[in-house]
């Protein structure tokens, strides 16, 4: 990695820490909450302000880089050429609004579609997860070990309960079967944090039937550095260009879950 990339890594980390500070301070102000596509799809003025904070800085300091951000202040990304920053200023907005904790800043930096740097910052715990391609993943600057395998019946799986309820969008039968056969399920309400938990071995897999590029772009770089596999539920590579199904898991567990899912959905 040349010197320039090391500087970008340090820059990104300090930007994230500063944004985290701004979010913590925002709790002393009034927060405006609005709904987007549905009553469960929330956005606040803080999501927007934090995204604008990142984008203003990145555009000033790296004018040839592009940014895909959840709140739409960035660029329209139709291909992954060049340097692309995938930003979710607050992943887990519902937790941010209702709990004032259990949300994260998620950032991934890609070069020609290859994930170079991934960051997840659990703002209220001050826990920082990061990775650089080929250089391992870290939790608060401690190296995370490579993951060891777990079978489905010994696995804790991160999944949102709404995916188990009958839903026209998904095949819920194979998901019900998975929930029956695993050791336990957890739902944290932030895809980025669930990716961080898979990477640090606190859960064994995480799946969702609809995620956007900014939800996962940073986390899959971290997960990849400890040997986890991330794909769509159809076992296809993630495109990072639109909403997709998503699973990240330890390698054999990934295979076991996907095989059962594809077989049972028929
Ligand atoms: P968000 O809080 O940034 O919107 C919650 O189950 C997880 O799914 C969170 O990471 C949340 O991200 C994400 N999420 C919620 N609604 C979504 C949607 N409509 N499309 C994609 N991701 C969504
Ligand atoms: Ca968000």
For this entry, give a set of tags.
7-stranded mixed beta sheet; D-Maltodextrin-Binding Protein, domain 2; binds calcium ion; binds adenosine-2'-monophosphate; 266 residues; 35% helix; Fructose-1,6-Bisphosphatase, Chain A, domain 1; alpha+beta; globular
Please state the structural category.
alpha+beta
**Could you give the distance between the termini?**
45 Å
Ligand species: adenosine-2'-monophosphate, calcium ion
Mean pLDDT: 96
Number of helices: 7
Strand content bin = 25-35%
| Physical arrangement of strands within the biggest beta sheet | 3-4-5-6-7-8-9
Specify the CATH architecture of the largest domain: 2-Layer Sandwich
Give the SSE string: HEEHEEHEEEEEEHEHEHEEH
Can you tell me the CATH class of the largest domain? Alpha Beta
Rg for CA atoms: 18 Å
Number of domains: 2
| Annotation, overall tally of beta strands | 14
Summarize the structure.
This protein is an alpha+beta fold.
Please provide a written account of the structure.
With 266 residues, this protein is an alpha+beta fold. The chain has 2 domains: 141 residues, Fructose-1,6-Bisphosphatase, Chain A, domain 1 (2-Layer Sandwich), CATH 3.30.540.10; 110 residues, 3-Layer(aba) Sandwich (D-Maltodextrin-Binding Protein, domain 2). 35% of the residues lie in helices and 26% in strands. The chain is built from 7 helices and 14 strands. A 7-stranded mixed β-sheet has the order 3-4-5-6-7-8-9, sandwiched between helices. A 5-stranded mixed β-sheet has the order 11-10-12-14-13. Strand 6 and strand 7 form a beta hairpin. It starts with a helix and ends with a helix. The mean pLDDT is 96. The site of calcium ion has 6 residues, from strand 4.
């Amino acid at each position: 990695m040349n010197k320039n990339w090391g500087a970008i890594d340090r820059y990104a980390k300090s930007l994230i820490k500063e944004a985290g500070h701004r979010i913590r301070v925002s709790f002393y102000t009034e927060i405006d909450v609005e709904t987007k596509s549905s009553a469960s799809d929330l956005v606040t003025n803080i999501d927007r302000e934090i995204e604008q904070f990142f984008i203003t800085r990145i555009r000033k300091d790296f004018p040839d880089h592009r940014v895909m951000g959840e709140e739409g202040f960035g660029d329209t990304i139709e291909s992954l050429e060049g340097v692309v920053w995938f930003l979710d200023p607050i992943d887990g907005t519902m937790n941010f609004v209702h709990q004032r904790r259990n949300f994260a800043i998620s950032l991934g930096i890609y070069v020609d579609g290859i994930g170079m740097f991934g960051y997840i910052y659990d703002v209220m715990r001050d826990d920082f997860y990061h990775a650089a391609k080929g250089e391992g993943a870290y939790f608060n600057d401690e190296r995370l070990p490579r993951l060891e395998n777990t079978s489905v019946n010994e696995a804790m799986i991160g999944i949102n309960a709404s995916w188990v309820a009958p839903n026209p969008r998904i095949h819920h039968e194979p998901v019900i079967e998975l929930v029956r056969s695993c050791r336990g399920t957890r739902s944290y309400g932030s895809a980025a944090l669930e990716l961080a938990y898979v990477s640090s071995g606190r859960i064994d897999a995480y799946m969702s039937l609809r995620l956007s590029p900014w939800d996962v772009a940073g986390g899959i770089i971290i997960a990849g550095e400890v040997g986890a596999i991330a794909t769509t539920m159809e076992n296809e590579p993630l495109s990072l260009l639109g909403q997709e199904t998503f699973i990240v898991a330890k390698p054999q567990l990934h295979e076991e879950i996907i095989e059962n899912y594809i077989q049972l959905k028929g």
